[in-house]
Design brief:
32 strands, mainly beta, 5-stranded mixed sheet, 5-stranded antiparallel sheet, Thrombin, subunit H, Methylamine Dehydrogenase, Chain H, 386 residues
């Protein structure tokens, strides 16, 4: 673990912790196969996974996938939502329940809202009405604009909806009007969405990869292009971590029960931010892989880490870890059979849900691991991943 000096003061003494990798999970944790499973679509590709989860006010859990649409579950059956339900894109990056109980889905083709019966497309000015043919730039720029991914959706304490996009920054919707924020000339600036600004936007400076609303009600978000963490305190956007201090793209972000912010990155391990003090955790500290897809701060105060594995590796205990503030613990290899962990979520009763490739899905209640994976329809070319 690397302790990085504060921006505002020097730390006279570095306290070095010895992080021991332990197997504190019960080695005899039973694995139970659920009679109810998340049914795989016919011909599903092996890389399809659950990549976001949320539980609504009724207790129903929603699962967004990377190509099989959206599922919901309330104890007895999984329901799948696709084009016939108004959800016109099956790649779901983010899910959020607003204060009115509506489910918002950020997809590869913008935003959809579930009204209790069907999904309706939510138009983002400057994103949904962009003229693809007018963009004269690199192919990668044209690709992202054409597919209009929305990576994150959150709602702050005042009711504003914040939407993070792949290429044209951050939107705030107050229920009546939109404000678009983009990183221009070294700072975040606000725009009223219009044709000129959206077409001339520098896509490499404006992806917003992850967001959260902290316990104080402030919006925190990470930007891939800058490698920085920002905060909107209701009036302005300020930098919490300056450029270069976090070298990897922010993939996930959570706040623990003490108010410490944890960041999972691509190729740069994990960071924790306590005020202005930044600590760095890498594979040498027990994370095993430096790319962290997903983080969870549970109600007990533990931090869960989910990592992706190369397709030719089969050692799942390396990719699912828990940190209790002193040591990292590995989940027993014989229980969680998966190449990668793509999502971790805690429901209202304290169950931990774990997802991975092939639409693998598990629930851990602290003692028993329940497998909700559909084994009847193996993914196409699944033998390559064995």
């Amino acid at each position: 673990m690397k302790l990085i000096a504060s921006l505002t003061f020097k730390i006279p003494v570095l306290l070095v912790m010895l992080l021991v990798i332990t197997d504190c999970f019960a080695q005899d944790t039973p694995l139970v196969k659920s009679l109810v499973t998340m049914t795989r679509p016919k011909g599903m590709k092996p890389e399809i996974n659950v990549q976001c989860m949320v539980q609504d006010k009724t207790g129903r859990i929603w699962f967004g996938t990377s190509g099989a649409g959206l599922y919901s579950f309330k104890g007895k059956v999984f329901t799948r939502y696709t084009e016939k339900d108004g959800l016109m894109n099956g790649v779901i990056f983010s899910l959020m329940e607003d204060h009115e109980g509506r489910i918002w889905a950020g997809t590869n083709e913008g935003v959809y809202i579930f009204d209790g019966h069907k999904f309706n497309h939510f138009t983002l000015p400057g994103l949904d009405d962009i003229n693809y043919n007018l963009i004269n730039s690199a192919n990668i720029v044209r690709f992202w604009y054409r597919y209009k991914p929305v990576f994150n959706i959150v709602q702050d304490k005042t009711g504003n909806i914040w939407i993070g996009t792949a290429g044209i920054g951050l939107y705030r919707y107050d229920g009546n009007s939109f404000t678009n924020y983009r990183y221009v000339d070294g700072k975040w600036k606000s725009f009223v969405p219009d044709a000129y600004n959206r077409i001339n936007c520098n896509i490499y400076g404006n992806p917003v990869n992850h967001m959260l609303v902290d316990k104080k009600g402030d919006l925190l978000f990470g930007s891939a292009a800058t490698g920085r963490l920002f905060k909107h305190d209701g009036n302005r956007i300020i930098s919490l971590i300056d450029s270069g201090r976090v070298k990897g793209r922010v993939m996930s972000m959570v706040e623990d029960k003490t108010g410490r912010i944890w960041l999972g990155t691509e190729l740069d391990g994990a960071y924790s931010l306590n005020g202005r003090q930044l600590q760095h955790y890498t594979a040498k500290d027990g994370l095993r892989l430096n790319t962290l897809n997903t983080l969870l701060a549970d109600k007990k105060g533990d931090i869960w880490f989910g990592s992706t594995a190369p397709l030719n590796e089969r050692n799942p205990q390396n990719y699912f870890l828990k940190y209790d503030g002193k040591t990292f613990a590995r989940f027993p290899k014989e229980d969680l059979i998966n190449t990668s962990v793509t999502g971790i979520f805690e429901d209202k009763t304290g169950n931990i849900w774990i997802s991975g490739h092939h639409l693998n899905l598990y629930k851990f209640d602290g003692q028993v691991l329940t497998d909700f994976t559909d084994k009847t329809k193996p993914p196409v070319n699944s033998k390559k991943l064995q």
